[in-house]
Amino acid sequence: MKFIGIDIAKSTFVTAYPLPTGGYRTKTYPNDPKGVALFMKSFSQEGHHCVLEATGNYGMLLLYMLCKAGIAVSQVNPKQIKHFARMMMTVTKTDDVDAKLISLYGEKMCPPVYRFPAESLLILKQKKVIARQLRKQLVALSNLKESLQALPIKDKASLKSLDKTLRFLKARIEEIDADIADVASSAFEQQIASLTSVKGIGISLATSLVISTGGFSQFETSKQLARFVGIYPSYQQSGSSINIRGKISRNGDSNLRSLLYIASWSAIRYNETCKEAYERLKARGKPSKVALVAVANKLLRQAFAICKSNSRYVDGYKSTLNKNANSSCFLT
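Predicted structure:
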């Protein structure tokens, strides 16, 4: 298998083809449908595997066309390539060098084949991003209004314009949130129903979980999911002098972690297993925030188990799933 490394930019992408005699041949293509089509004609589908970094929206067209054509492609975390480059002691950073490194990474690590998400999931992600940006604007303008009201002389026209913009943003956010709920309930009806059956998980968190995880289709175990969300505790051990159980990794979606943390407040009141876990940790002297983060982790695992088993939540039920699968609803 030959791995083709691809370095994505806004207008172009650089490819690195491994040569039979060693080394690489690089070529630059336009990052548009014609450029991607030209790239796909430059190699045979059999025996080739494309590898690229996750670069947000700029790499989605290439991913989409490669997956649609049935060409094996992998999308890797840029941090993995960054640390791989450090391991190789690379001192030069150019688009060509990056493409070669990505190709070498694919050869050494054999990353899994990327599964392109459903169309409804892409639509939901776009709506979620827009709603998040509008909320940021709403907070910024609300703070601006408060600061202007502290002035001794106020411009009524400016405040009126600000109020009009704030009303518009609130209306647009409500409209987009309703659209997200409608699309999610229609495309992922079974999963949304299963998730909202868990005590502590509402429609907002359920929708965010489906959008961020691709309907849980990209994960085999709950540990993988917890690491992806960034709510998994870090651990350091070396010899007899270092044995540290550190903070959560915080690598994933900060908004999803916030929703899980807020949901833990309700879970410790109404979710029997989460309540027991919280009380047990508090009895051991753990701070309330640490215990709540642990409950958020447990809530995430419950959601994973419910969706993977395609069932509804039963409070107090003890899972009979294989412990090695790490998909138990209730951790001890």
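Summary: The domain at 2-109 is CATH 3.30.420.40 (Nucleotidyltransferase; domain 5).
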